[in-house]
Amino acid sequence: MWSTSAWVLLCALSTFLGFVLSRRRPASPRHPAGLPDEATFATLHITALAAPSLRAGLTRDSARKAIRHLRTLLGVSAIAVTDADGVLAWDGAAGCHRDHAPEHARTVFSSGRPYVVAGDAIACDTPGCAIRGAAVVPLTVDGRVIGALAAYDTEVSAGLVRTVTEVARWVSGQLELAELDSSRRRAMEAETRALRAQISPHFVYNSLTTIASFVRTDPERARELLMDFADFTRHALRRGGDFTTLADELRCVDRYLLLERARFGERLRFTVRVAPEVLPVPVPFLCLQPLVENAIKHGIAATGGSGEVRVVVRDAGPEAHISVEDDGLGMDPGRARRLLDDDPCQGPGEGGIGLANVDVRLRQIYGEGYGLVVETALGAGTKIRLRVPKLPTR
Question: The whole model's pTM is what?
Answer without folding.
Answer: 0.52
